[in-house]
Amino acid sequence: AVADSAIRRVVFCAGQVYFMLEKERASRGANDVAIVRVEELTPLPLAEIKTEVSRYTNAEVMWAQEEPRNMGAFLFLEPHLEQMAKNGECKYAGRLSSASVATGSRFIHNTENERIVETVFAA
User: Fold this and answer.
1) How crowded is the C-beta side of 75, counted as CA atoms within 13 Å?
2) What DSSP element (H or E) covers 23?
3) What integer pLDDT is reported at residue 83 of this predicted model?
4) How far is CA 62 from CA 28, 100, 108, 121, in A?
5) What is the DSSP string of 47-87?
């Protein structure tokens, strides 16, 4: 375990993307990235999220999701996370906006998952 002050990024997410990110974090040994799974979006646990943001004093805030940007929880959570972030910014790791939830291609799906992972763990 590393000190909270050594965490450079705190990544919030919901659902199964958490398990993909946690597995990748373990395989990379990326102990400077904290991953927080938000179990419930309604009612939004703002106090608990704020506690986690405050805990990592040197970390940037990010939201990760498998859904396209215009779907999923990001657009709902972005203003809340930006307000809590020390620099007023919430970064995003997820699929680009799309009219469809799924691409219909396993190759594209896997490529998009790899891009999510690379965005989360990028230096």
Assistant:
1) 9
2) helix 17-28
3) 97
4) 19, 23, 23, 11
5) HHHHHHHHH-TTPEEEEEEEEETTSSSHHHHHHHHHHHSTT
Write down the pLDDT at residue 103.
86
Residue with tokens 């203003």: 79
**Is the pLDDT confidence value at 4 over 90?**
yes
HSE toward the beta carbon, residue 24, CA cutoff 13 A = 18
77 vs 43: CA distance, rounded Å: 12
What is the spatial distance between Cα 79 and Cα 48, in angstroms, rounded to a whole number? 16
DSSP, res 43: S
Contact of 67 with 15, CB cutoff 8 Å = no
Q: Is the pTM of this model over 0.70?
A: yes
d(CA 49, CA 55): 10
* Closest to 59 measured CA to CA, from 29, 100, 91, 23: 91
